[in-house]
Amino acid sequence: MKKYSLILILIFITSEALASNKKEIINNLKNTNNLSFNFEQNINGEIENGKCTIQYPKKIYCKYNSDNKKILVSNGRSLVIKTSKSYYLYPLNKTPLNFILNKDFLLKKINHLNERVVDNKYINYSFIENENEINIFFDTKNHNLIGWQMLDIFQNQNITYLYSVIKNQKIKKDLFKLPMQN
């Protein structure tokens, strides 16, 4: 009997901790208007890094530390990937970033998903939307968004890790203006 009581207590404590994580993540995300961070991105084994700013809803500006001067910009409707030699323009709603950059969508998803704790460091939520499998990760300590994993628009495995995350900074008004073609 003691054994079953102990098991029930452990199950209760674990479920309470998971519910608390979800509540903290939801509250943290609700109170986040923008994020600035450094990132490391692994696309099919090729590693790039740089700095990004996300402004909800659906805006992102990333400047890569690369010789080709790569930037990625979304104004909420379109997504541009520009280098010194190329220029790609996509409708944002045709990319998985459309979901990651949509705070209201994420809040609804997280509210209905079960979480998975990874190495006692990360909280993971997984979902499939419009044939896109997306994993988002949050820090167990501060409940900040710290990364995502998905297939990009070219069907490449994309793992993005965020660090040195700063929330709710003042952002330049024209930061998310789409760059002109080369």
List the SSEs and their pairings.
Layout: H1 2-30, E1 34-43, E2 46-55, E3 59-64, E4 71-75, E5 78-82, E6 87-91, H2 97-100, H3 103-112, E7 116-118, E8 122-129, E9 132-139, E10 145-151, E11 157-167
Antiparallel strand pairs: 1-2, 1-11, 2-3, 3-4, 4-5, 5-6, 7-8, 8-9, 9-10, 10-11
Write structural notes for this entry.
There is one protein chain. This protein has a single domain, classed as Lipoprotein localisation LolA/LolB/LppX (outer membrane lipoprotein receptor (LolB), chain A, Clam), CATH 2.50.20. The chain is built from three helices and eleven strands, in the order H-E-E-E-E-E-E-H-H-E-E-E-E-E. The chain has helices spanning 2-30, 97-100, 103-112; strands at 34-43, 46-55, 59-64, 71-75, 78-82, 87-91, 116-118, 122-129, 132-139, 145-151, 157-167. Helix 1 (2-30) runs antiparallel to helix 3 (103-112). The N and C termini lie far apart (73 Å).
Summarize the structure.
With 182 residues, this protein is an alpha+beta fold. The protein has three helices and eleven strands. The chain has helices spanning 2-30, 97-100, 103-112, and strands at residues 34-43, 46-55, 59-64, 71-75, 78-82, 87-91, 116-118, 122-129, 132-139, 145-151, 157-167.
Write out the strand line-up for the largest beta sheet, numbering strands in chain order. Answer: 6-5-4-3-2-1-11-10-9-8-7
Separation of the first and last Cα atoms: 73 Å
Question: Largest sheet, if any?
Answer: 11 strands, antiparallel
CATH superfamily: Lipoprotein localisation LolA/LolB/LppX
- Quick one: overall form? globular
Low-confidence stretches: 2-18
**Rg, please?**
18 Å
**N-to-C series of helices and strands:** HEEEEEEHHEEEEE
The secondary structure category is alpha+beta
Number of strands: 11
Instruction: Give the amount of beta strand, in percent.
Output: 35-45%
On the 0 to 100 scale, the average pLDDT is 89
Taken together, the total number of domains comes to 1
Q: Give the helix level as a range of percent.
A: 10-25%
Helix count, per DSSP? 3
CATH topology: outer membrane lipoprotein receptor (LolB), chain A
CATH class: Mainly Beta
The CATH architecture can be named as Clam
